Amino acid sequence: MEKRKLLVQYVMEGNDEKALELAKELVKEVNPKLLLEDLTEGMRELGQKFERLEVFLPELMVAADALEQVTAIIEPLLESEDIVEKEKVVMATVKGDVHEIGKNIVSMVLKANGFEVIDLGKDVSATNIIKTAQENEAKIIGLSALMTTTMPSQKEVIDLLKDMGLRDKFKVLVGGAPVSKNWADSIGADGYAEDAFKTVDLVKSIL
Question: What domain range is 185 assigned to?
């Protein structure tokens, strides 16, 4: 198999050891930009398989982890003309909620698609989320809630933005297992996506 395709295969299988070894070899032979494009396309195909229930969450997570490691080797080698200013996305699991697997996958897939992600982790206050978005001049705020009891914390961020006169400066996207489009509409969010790959499409369409 051609080496570039093999690299994508190793990453998608989550074989980070072989992927890293091959990536170190390939960056000496191939334009790193092309390698990133290969990997992004591979991740998109994996996302489509995930949507069709052909692969499951654990497989997605090991692939995302391998991708992050390989990307760390490739990105520093990009030519300056290949480096475009990355759009910034602030991601957080809202106050009171300690679940972050879904958010982490969304963050990894956004990174794989060329976004700079500032991931604040779990149980993050509305003030901290907004402050970080301001400091980093991010255009997008992504809020994850995995429990019905913490969904109001998503609304709290939007309400606080309004109170601070900042609502029009940021696009606020919400997600998480109990979250729905109806909920997103009811709290005045700018968008809702049900999985990581739809989130990427949503972010791109908004920007």
Answer: 88-206
Active site residue 195: no
Q: Give 57-115 pLDDT, tens digit per residue.
A: 888 888 888 988 898 888 788 765 455 567 999 999 999 999 887 888 888 778 877 78
Tallying the residues shown for the chain, one arrives at 207
Give the end of a domain, one of 19, 50, 82: 82
Tokens at 13, concatenated: 């299988």
Q: Are 111 and 86 in contact (CB under 8 A)?
A: no
186 an active-site residue? no
Residues 6+ apart with CB under 8 A from 128: 92, 120
Q: What tokens does 4 get? A: 């570039």
Task: Clarify whether 125 is annotated catalytic.
Answer: no
